[in-house]
Amino acid sequence: EVVDRMTEVLARIVHAVSMGGNMVVNFGPQPDGDFRPEEKKIADFIGKWMKKNSECIYGCDYAGWEKQDWGYYTRKSNQVYMVVFNPPYSGQLTVKTPKGITITTAKTLTGEQTQVTETTRNDIGKVLYVTSPIMKQAVKAINTAIGRWIKNFIMFFYLSINSTNHSSLTR
Fold first, then answer.
1. Which one of 23, 58, 104, 123 has the fewest beta carbons within 10 angstroms of its own beta carbon?
2. How many other CB atoms are found less than 10 A from the CB of residue 51?
C-alpha cells in the first residue's frame, strides 16, 4: 500500500545517506504527462518529512558506527544522528560507539534531553543505552496501537560527541 511504500522509500533514503551515498527516487510521468496518485503521495510525504527533518540528511555522511536494528546513524561534523524506524520494546536504544568517542549531549531533534547510560567499555569502544520520555511514550503507544501506525513511527535523536579518535569519524 501507499503508506508502506512511503516509509520504505524514506528508509531507503536514510540508509543510503548512512552509508555515505545518496538516492534518486525515480518517478516517471504517465502518457498524459501527469504522475500517478501514489507517486504524488510519496513525493508529498518525503517533501514534508525533509522540510521538518532535513538536518539528519542534508550534508550528512557515513558515521562509522555499528548498525543497530532500530534504524540508522548519519553524521555531520561532531553530530551523530540516530534515525529510529523500529523503536525497541525496552524503550532503550543500544548505541555502540567506537573507541575514543565521548557523548557530550544527547537530544531529540525537538531539543528534548535524553538519558545516556554507559553499560560496557572495552578496547573496541563503549555500549550505551539512550532513553527518553518520548521513547517510553512511543513504546507504550506501539504496544497499544495496531496496524500501519507502528510501521510509520519514526523518531530522531542526535548525539553531540567529542572524539579523541578522529579516524572513527572518517572512512
1. 123
2. 8
Contact 158, 79 (CB under 8 A): yes
How far is residue 38's CA from residue 85's CA, in Å, rounded to a whole number?
22
pTM score: 0.77
- Sheet holding 79-84: strands in order across? 71-76, 79-84, 155-163, 101-108
**Three-class SS string for the chain?**
CHHHHHHHHHHHHHHHHHCCCCCCCCCCCCCCCCCCHHHHHHHHHHHHHHHHHHHHCCCCECCCCCCECCEEEEEECCEEEEEECCCCCCCCEEEEEECCEEEEEEEECCCCECEEEEEEECCCEEEEEEECHHHHHHHHHHHHCCCHHHHCCCEEEEEEEEECCHHHHCC
Query: What percent of the chain clears pLDDT 90, i.e. is strictly above it?
Result: 17
Distance between CA 144 and CA 155 in Å, rounded?
18
Three cell numbers, residue 80: 551523530
Q: Which amino acid is at 171?
A: R
